[in-house]
C-alpha cells in the first residue's frame, strides 16, 4: 500500500506560504508544568534549555555526567530537535550528591535544579507554549489573522503530525511489513512501540479527515463519544441540549477511534464512519488487535490557548500559542498555509 498525507482534509483555508525552523531560535517551545517541589528526596529535577538537540540525546548526556543508567533519567515528553526548548528532566540519585554538570555539551543549559521525592513521568505536564517565527511569507497575512481568530473560537483538528510516522512515512511501511509477515517482528521495544503508534495514528487521522470533509469534526454527530477538555475520560451522547453549548465553548470535544481489540464505542453514524475508514487498512487493524491493543478514544479537536499572530515585517510573522500534551504545532501551521 502507498501512504500519502496530502489527502488529509484541512479545516481552514490556507492562504500563506513561507519557511519555518530556518534556525532553532525560530522555533521556541517551553514546557508548562504545575508541580510543587518537595525540596528533598532522591530525585534531582532539572529545568533544561536545549538547542538543536533531541530529548533522548539530552537524557543520555545527563545520565552519563551523573554516572547513572539511562533508565534513571525521566522526562515528560519528547521535544523537537530543530528548536530551542525548555523542559524538565529528573535524575534518580539515591544517597548521592548533586552532580557537577559543567562537562555537559554546549547544547544543554541547566536553568534550575531542585530535589523532589518522585521521578518525572511521561505525560506529567499541563501544556507546551510555542513561539514560532515564520519567514519569507507570501499571501494574505490579514486573512491569516482572521483564521487565527476562528481557530481561537473553534479549535483545530487533532491530527497526528508527520513526525509520528517517521522519515518519509517509513514507520507505516515497516508496520505493514511486520503485520503482514513480510518481515520479522522488531527486536527493540521502542521500535515496536513506534510502529504500533504509527499504524494506529494513521487510522485515526483518516477518521478525522473524513469528518472534516463532512463538516462535522467539531460538531455533534449521531452516535458521538465526547471527551472533556484537558482530560482523557469520555462519555456517550446523552441527547441533552446542553452538549451543544459545551461543544461551542470547547468544554468537550468529539472523539475518534484509536484502533484495538473490542467493539467500537461509538454508535450509529459515527460508528459506521469509523468502521468504514478502519476497513481501508485491514492489515493495520488485524496487527493492532493481534498485538493486544484495546479500543480507545482520542479527541478530534484541540483547544488552542493564547493564540496571537503578529506581523513583524512584510515577510515575517510571529505566532505564539499553547497546546495540550500530545498536540502538534505543525498541525496548527497547516491551517494557515504551506510552510517548509
From TrEMBL:
Keywords: Isomerase, Lyase, tRNA processing. This is tRNA pseudouridine synthase D. Responsible for synthesis of pseudouridine from uracil-13 in transfer RNAs. The lineage of its organism: Bacteria, Pseudomonadati, Pseudomonadota, Gammaproteobacteria, Thiotrichales. The active site is at 80 (nucleophile). Belongs to the pseudouridine synthase TruD family. NCBIfam families: PRK00984.1-2. GO terms for molecular function: lyase activity; RNA binding; tRNA pseudouridine(13) synthase activity. Residues 155-302 form the TRUD domain. It comes from uncultured Thiotrichaceae bacterium.
Amino acid at each position: 500500500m502507498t501512504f500519502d498525507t496530502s489527502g488529509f482534509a484541512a479545516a481552514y483555508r490556507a492562504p500563506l506560504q513561507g519557511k519555518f525552523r530556518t534556525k532553532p531560535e525560530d522555533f521556541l517551545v517551553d514546557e508548562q508544568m504545575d508541580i510543587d517541589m518537595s525540596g528533598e528526596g532522591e530525585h534531582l529535577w532539572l529545568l533544561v534549555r536545549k538547542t538543536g538537540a533531541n530529548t533522548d540525546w539530552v537524557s543520555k548526556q545527563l545520565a552519563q555526567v551523573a554516572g547513572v543508567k539511562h533508565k534513571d533519567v525521566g522526562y515528560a515528553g519528547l521535544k523537537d530537535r530543530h528548536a530551542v526548548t525548555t523542559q524538565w528532566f529528573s535524575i534518580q540519585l539515591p544517597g548521592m550528591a548533586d552532580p557537577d554538570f559543567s562537562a555537559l555539551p554546549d547544547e544543554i543549559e541547566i536553568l534550575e535544579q531542585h530535589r523532589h521525592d518522585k521521578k518525572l513521568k511521561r505525560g506529567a505536564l499541563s501544556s507546551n507554549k510555542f513561539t514560532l517565527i515564520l519567514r519569507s511569507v507570501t499571501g494574505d497575512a490579514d486573512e491569516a489573522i482572521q483564521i487565527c481568530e476562528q481557530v481561537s473560537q473553534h479549535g483545530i483538528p487533532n491530527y497526528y503530525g508527520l513526525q509520528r510516522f517517521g522519515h518519509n512515512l517509513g514507520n507505516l511501511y515497516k508496520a505493514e511489513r511486520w503485520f503482514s509477515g513480510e518481515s520479522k517482528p522488531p527486536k527493540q521495544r521502542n521500535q515496536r512501540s513506534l510502529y504500533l503508534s504509527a499504524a494506529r495514528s494513521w487510522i485515526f487521522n483518516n477518521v478525522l479527515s473524513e469528518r472534516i470533509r463532512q463538516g462535522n469534526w467539531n460538531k455533534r454527530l449521531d452516535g458521538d463519544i465526547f471527551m472533556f477538555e484537558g482530560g482523557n475520560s469520555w462519555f456517550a451522547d446523552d441527547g441533552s441540549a446542553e452538549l451543544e453549548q459545551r461543544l461551542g465553548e470547547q468544554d468537550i470535544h468529539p472523539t475518534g477511534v484509536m484502533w484495538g481489540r473490542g467493539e467500537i464505542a461509538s454508535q450509529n453514524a459515527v460508528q459506521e464512519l469509523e468502521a468504514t475508514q478502519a476497513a481501508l487498512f485491514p492489515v493495520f487493524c488485524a496487527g493492532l488487535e493481534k498485538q493486544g491493543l484495546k479500543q480507545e478514544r482520542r479527541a478530534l479537536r484541540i483547544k488552542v490557548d493564547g493564540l496571537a499572530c503578529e506581523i513583524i515585517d512584510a515577510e515575517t510573522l510571529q505566532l505564539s500559542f499553547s497546546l495540550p500534551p500530545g498536540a502538534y504545532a505543525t498541525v496548527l501551521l497547516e491551517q494557515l498555509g504551506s510552510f517548509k
